[in-house]
Automatic annotation (TrEMBL):
Keywords: Repeat
Protein name: Clp R domain-containing protein
Gene3D superfamilies: Clp, N-terminal domain
Species for this entry: Rubroshorea leprosula
Keyword Repeat annotated: yes
InterPro entries, A to Z: Clp_N_dom_sf (IPR036628), Clp_R_N (IPR004176), SL_signaling_regulator (IPR051650)
Keyword Protease appears in the UniProt entry: no
Residue ranges occupied by any Clp R domain in the UniProt entry: 8-88
Superkingdom of the source species: Eukaryota
Amino acid sequence: MPSPVTVARQCLTPEASNALDEAVGVACRRGHAQTTSLHAVSALLSLSSPPLREACARARNATYSSRLQFKALDLCLSVSLDRVPSSQ
Protein backbone atom coordinates (compact mmCIF):
# COMPACT_ATOMS: atom_id res chain seq x y z
CA MET A 1 0.00 0.00 0.00
CA PRO A 2 1.48 3.39 -0.95
CA SER A 3 2.49 5.75 1.83
CA PRO A 4 2.08 9.51 1.62
CA VAL A 5 5.41 11.31 1.25
CA THR A 6 4.78 13.36 4.40
CA VAL A 7 4.33 10.19 6.46
CA ALA A 8 7.39 8.50 4.95
CA ARG A 9 9.54 11.61 5.50
CA GLN A 10 8.90 11.44 9.28
CA CYS A 11 10.74 8.10 9.46
CA LEU A 12 13.82 9.22 7.51
CA THR A 13 17.10 10.94 8.18
CA PRO A 14 17.59 14.37 6.56
CA GLU A 15 19.73 12.81 3.79
CA ALA A 16 17.13 10.13 3.08
CA SER A 17 14.39 12.76 3.14
CA ASN A 18 16.27 14.77 0.50
CA ALA A 19 16.64 11.62 -1.62
CA LEU A 20 12.90 10.98 -1.29
CA ASP A 21 12.16 14.55 -2.40
CA GLU A 22 14.43 14.02 -5.42
CA ALA A 23 12.62 10.75 -6.24
CA VAL A 24 9.26 12.53 -6.07
CA GLY A 25 10.69 15.19 -8.39
CA VAL A 26 11.78 12.54 -10.89
CA ALA A 27 8.28 11.02 -10.83
CA CYS A 28 6.63 14.41 -11.29
CA ARG A 29 8.90 15.39 -14.19
CA ARG A 30 8.06 12.14 -15.93
CA GLY A 31 4.32 12.54 -15.27
CA HIS A 32 4.06 9.44 -13.08
CA ALA A 33 1.26 9.24 -10.52
CA GLN A 34 3.30 7.37 -7.91
CA THR A 35 6.93 7.40 -6.84
CA THR A 36 8.46 3.94 -7.16
CA SER A 37 11.76 2.34 -6.26
CA LEU A 38 12.95 3.11 -9.80
CA HIS A 39 12.49 6.82 -9.11
CA ALA A 40 14.37 6.43 -5.84
CA VAL A 41 17.33 4.69 -7.47
CA SER A 42 17.44 7.30 -10.22
CA ALA A 43 17.41 10.08 -7.61
CA LEU A 44 20.12 8.39 -5.52
CA LEU A 45 22.39 8.22 -8.57
CA SER A 46 21.87 11.88 -9.39
CA LEU A 47 22.59 13.35 -5.92
CA SER A 48 25.67 15.57 -5.62
CA SER A 49 27.33 13.03 -3.32
CA PRO A 50 25.64 9.82 -4.42
CA PRO A 51 26.13 7.01 -1.88
CA LEU A 52 24.72 4.46 -4.34
CA ARG A 53 27.26 5.43 -7.01
CA GLU A 54 30.08 5.16 -4.45
CA ALA A 55 28.88 1.72 -3.35
CA CYS A 56 28.72 0.55 -6.96
CA ALA A 57 32.25 1.84 -7.56
CA ARG A 58 33.57 -0.13 -4.58
CA ALA A 59 31.82 -3.31 -5.72
CA ARG A 60 32.61 -2.95 -9.41
CA ASN A 61 33.64 -5.82 -11.60
CA ALA A 62 37.25 -5.54 -12.77
CA THR A 63 36.22 -6.64 -16.27
CA TYR A 64 34.32 -3.42 -17.02
CA SER A 65 35.20 0.17 -16.17
CA SER A 66 33.04 1.85 -13.54
CA ARG A 67 32.13 4.54 -16.09
CA LEU A 68 30.76 1.91 -18.45
CA GLN A 69 28.86 0.22 -15.63
CA PHE A 70 27.24 3.52 -14.60
CA LYS A 71 26.23 4.23 -18.21
CA ALA A 72 24.62 0.78 -18.40
CA LEU A 73 22.84 1.33 -15.08
CA ASP A 74 21.59 4.75 -16.19
CA LEU A 75 20.33 3.28 -19.47
CA CYS A 76 18.51 0.44 -17.69
CA LEU A 77 16.89 2.89 -15.28
CA SER A 78 15.86 5.20 -18.08
CA VAL A 79 14.25 2.38 -20.06
CA SER A 80 12.48 1.11 -16.95
CA LEU A 81 11.20 4.58 -16.04
CA ASP A 82 9.96 5.04 -19.62
CA ARG A 83 7.79 1.96 -19.11
CA VAL A 84 6.06 3.31 -15.99
CA PRO A 85 2.57 4.48 -17.00
CA SER A 86 2.06 8.24 -16.96
CA SER A 87 -0.77 9.75 -14.95
CA GLN A 88 -3.76 11.02 -16.87
